[in-house]
Each structure stands twice: as C-alpha cells, then as structure tokens.
Design brief:
- It is built from five helices and ten strands.
- By secondary structure, it is α+β, with helices and mostly antiparallel strands.
- Strands 4-5-6-7-8 form a five-stranded antiparallel beta sheet. Strands 3-10-9 form a three-stranded antiparallel beta sheet.
- The protein is elongated, with a radius of gyration of 29 Å.
- The termini are far apart.
C-alpha cells in the first residue's frame, strides 16, 4: 500500500490535485512503542495499588499530641496506660471529688488522632486508614487472603468503604453505608445485602448497640479532617 495518496477536490470549474501524506514506518513504530510503554505503566500501577498493595505507614504523634489524645480518651472513660504508669509514675490514681461539666461532654478527634489510635494496635496499624470529610467517614482496609484460599492465597486484598454519618431532623444519629469497593471496583448493592444508603441506627435501633449509641449522643458531626461528638446528660 502506498504511503502517499492523491485525491481531487473541485473548486468551481477547476479541479485541484492534492497529495495526502500517511504515517511513515518510523511514526507507526513510535506510536506502537508509546502505547506499549503506557500500557505497561498503567498495568504496573493497577497491580501495585489494587492487587498487591503495600502496607500503610502507621500514623505517629509527638509527645504533645499524644498527651492531648490521652486526655480526650480519659474524658470518654478510657484508662490510658503509659510506660511510666507501670513504674508508679504519673499514672498513679489520685482521689478527687466527682463533677460533671458540660465541656467534658464535647470531644473532637482529628483524623490524625483516629489513625494514631488505630496505629497503637499492631493488628491494624498497617492495614487500616481512616479519612474524614463532610458527613463521610471513609476507610481503606488491607485484608490478607488465607493461605488455603483457592485464589490469590497469601496475597493482600484492598477494600474501600464509606459511611454517611450525621444527625437527622429529629437529632437522631444516622449511620448509612455509602458503598464498598474491592480492588477499586464498586460492589453491587445486591451483593451487600441491599444495605447501601440504609440507616443502620434506624434499621437496627430497636435493640442492642445502636439503641444505646443513639440515646447517648446529643450531637455528632463528621467534618473535613475531624470527628465531633457531644454526649447527652
């Protein structure tokens, strides 16, 4: 086949002959080579990110941030054990009169603090990462596949999930599953038991954890980078 072609175009009574140039052999070779390189890079990115993802880097806090987080956890009733506590240091209990202050019912956790709490657990430190945006809590989870599983045994599965968290018009907490994706592919709602966009508090709020949770919360907000919680009296 000739690389160059002739074609005619009529302009009024005259006919103009033009020469149309096709791609040369070198141009075709470069296009094919570029396509192969881009495909290889895209495949490497997909395999590295979704099929064989690297462990997450645990979030760490400096001493001041650790102290601030421990105070918040103590405010919610958690007894935080530090290294010096085990040697009779600053963690020794001191008697004090009981009191309730409205300010003590309000707690704000930053996204960094929540991920640092996860990082304290060695089972989740490199496997779970949390993100906060307006009314949305998102999680990235790395799940190891058992060695006796018939497919991808011993590999790591990447799962992304999102929860819509806010208060409804009656000031009751709403916790609804936005969606779940597996290696970047969204899972159909039918495979999730049709639980997408279903208020878990309303669906299961007549008993157990959700009832206690809803009854004890006066305000709940997920904002960009932080979680705000206010407990009832």
């Amino acid at each position: 086949m000739l690389a160059n072609k002739l074609f005619a175009k009529k302009i009024g009574p005259m006919t103009v002959i033009r020469r149309q140039r096709g791609f040369s052999g070198m141009q075709i070779f470069m296009i094919v080579l570029l396509t192969m390189v881009l495909t290889a890079l895209a495949s490497f990115f997909i395999i590295k990110t979704y099929i064989f993802p690297s462990p997450f880097s645990p979030v760490t806090l400096n001493a001041k941030e650790e102290q601030r987080l421990d105070n918040k956890l103590s405010q919610l009733g958690w007894q935080v054990e530090r290294k010096d506590d085990r040697h009779g240091g600053a963690g020794k209990l001191e008697p004090e009169p009981y009191r309730e202050r409205d300010a003590d019912r309000k707690v704000t956790f930053s996204e960094k603090e929540v991920n640092a709490m996860i990082g304290r657990n060695p089972d989740f430190a490199e496997r779970v990462a949390i993100d906060f945006s307006d009314n949305l809590a998102s999680a990235k989870i790395l799940i190891p596949i058992p060695q006796d599983f018939p497919i991808m045994a011993g590999e790591i599965l990447r799962v992304n999930a999102g929860l819509d968290i806010h208060l409804d018009a009656s000031r009751r907490p709403v916790v609804a599953l936005v969606g779940v994706s597996l290696m970047g592919v969204p899972i159909p709602n039918a495979w999730l038991g049709n639980m997408k966009n279903v208020n878990l508090v309303g669906e299961f709020g007549d008993r157990g954890f959700w009832t206690s949770f809803a009854d004890g919360v006066d305000d709940l907000q997920i904002r960009d980078g932080e979680l705000y919680l206010k407990l009832r009296r």
